[in-house]
Amino acid sequence: MKLALDAMGGDDAPQAMVHGAIDYALAHPLDTVILVGREGDLRACLSREKTTPSNVTIEHAPEVIGMAEKITALRERPNDSMNRCAQLVKQGKADAMVLCGNTGCSVSAAQLHLRRVPGVKRAGILTPLPNPKGHTWVCDTGANAVCRPEHLVQFAEMTVALLESSYGRVSPKVGVLSIGEEQEKGTELTIETCELLRKTNLNVVGNVEGHDLYSGDIDVVVCDGFVGNIVLKTSEGLIDGAMTILKEEIMSSLRTKIAGKLIYPALKGFKRRTHWSLVGGCPLIGVDGVTIIGHGRSNRVAVFHALKQASRCVTGKFIERLRARFRNELDTAATV
Amino acid sequence: MKLALDAMGGDDAPQAMVHGAIDYALAHPLDTVILVGREGDLRACLSREKTTPSNVTIEHAPEVIGMAEKITALRERPNDSMNRCAQLVKQGKADAMVLCGNTGCSVSAAQLHLRRVPGVKRAGILTPLPNPKGHTWVCDTGANAVCRPEHLVQFAEMTVALLESSYGRVSPKVGVLSIGEEQEKGTELTIETCELLRKTNLNVVGNVEGHDLYSGDIDVVVCDGFVGNIVLKTSEGLIDGAMTILKEEIMSSLRTKIAGKLIYPALKGFKRRTHWSLVGGCPLIGVDGVTIIGHGRSNRVAVFHALKQASRCVTGKFIERLRARFRNELDTAATV
Q1: Could you read off the pLDDT of B239-273 as tens digits, one per residue?
Q2: Residues linked to residue A131 through DSSP beta bridges, in sequence order
Q3: What is the pLDDT of residues B266-279, one digit of tens each?
Q4: Which of residues 116-145 of B touch A (CB under 8 A)?
Q5: Cα torsion through B265, B268, B269, B274, rounded to 10
Q6: Which residues 171-200 of B have a C-beta within 8 angstroms of A?
Q7: Which residues contact A181 (CB under 8 A, 6 or more apart)?
Q8: What is this structure's pTM?
Q9: Which residue of chain B comes nearest to A216, CA vs CA?
């Protein structure tokens, strides 16, 4: 399997990307990681390493799009690393891609070159949120600020396809993020989405609330990208804020300082079960090719796990399953 | 000052309400707490206490509305404790009210009897979220699932009025919850709200994101009640989920178990700075009378603090300030 990695994207690129690629390549000798970016920069990075595994290759892309640029940059710089990654997948030279740069441009580059799976109306960013029992998968967390009910229904169908194909889950529970469990609560969007979802063969529980995102009782939650992105950023901010307060309290006495040292293994265990870097990234579901959107702050560990997630989607034949699911829908629509 | 307390509302009513009222009355001998509810039940509760301060009185309301009932219950049972609380404020027999029961019915009872301050288009629930430096005040967290830009602008104006009148804050920073700091990011609602806010005399920072809710850098954040309620419930769920995982990790070895005992004072300090029960409740801003909506799970401590918050709004002359602010707006509108 060949995985294209945008080596220029992310706050710590290309260093973190090169490190993550090497770690992945060493652990998975049958796969190849293609570092996509400025060849000179990448060679310089690799030359500082003890070993460069032979299954790490370079694909030269002379241009770079920065973290804060607008999506028009994609048209202005067709030879940048994001465009190039997507072209590699499109041309069959890579089986999947991982992009940790500018999210807006990454999402657009994927859609521009790979298009959507026939029948899919919108691509969505799927984010796994940690809970005490595993993860709650939320879609969309930012690709579409405004959505229609049929988009949310497709997000649910695609997420279930991913969990069943690549994570061995059977009939995961699906909920619609709203503000009350009663069927009539919420907005037009959530009420109509619930109605449409009940007509599918998915395991639909109906409306769920914010606290259900972290209970472990629901597997898949759909919402528009505006709400999903706010949920995601609120969660990150809350953990940061809570840790700041907790650290201040721990540092306020000798007893709690000592306890803080002693408790370290538990904090490490907590981090192992919850930190985004160990999830690796968020699949952009609906585009016609495996695309993983990584966090802009990705370090080598996050890159490693994002590559792993990409490989999982390829092995599980996620895209083939999507094509089959929506081909059936298109056929049904055509015969009606 | 006289504070009406819905003694029948909340998961632990009337016990928790009676206890909170006694604690408040003992600490504030010049104020009176009026327990509103079934006289027999309340007398039975009070008789089990060592002391009943003379500044705790009972107002009989023979009917009760349960936590899961619909707002039609308010019309069907006009002699329930929520209707009665609002009537006491309307008639000037109480200066403020605290309601910890069914949120939908509480909000409706307040609006039904007290109406809105002239010029105010929607009442919103204002929730203080803890951050390392104090609180971020978010409105609306659930009274209105769908809002227009002018509603969000008024939520900002009313929240600033509350912070300035009752919390001694000067020119607090106001943001609009969105999904990107750039002015053009977000939905029609957030973009138009930002434009309108910039025409006011408020200290407007523009769009803010989910993580800003817990950074301590923004004082006031406005959003529609759908998004606000999801933010609130997500935050509660995240803290619960995180604590579950952390406890499991702490209990997984002897060393961390001991550390868990030693670290207790820091956890207590953390709770003191963050727990909702010490905030006490959420002002329902925009109705023409001080109304505090308490958490359904309120215990005696939460009730005590909710009563305190009500008294703070009365002392700060919050309602008078609202009336003045919106009277000016009405006058301006009339002359245009």
Answers
A1: 989 889 999 999 999 999 999 999 999 989 988 88
A2: A134
A3: 989 988 888 887 88
A4: 130-132, 142, 145
A5: 160
A6: 177-179, 185-187
A7: A206, A207, A208, A209
A8: 0.93
A9: B241
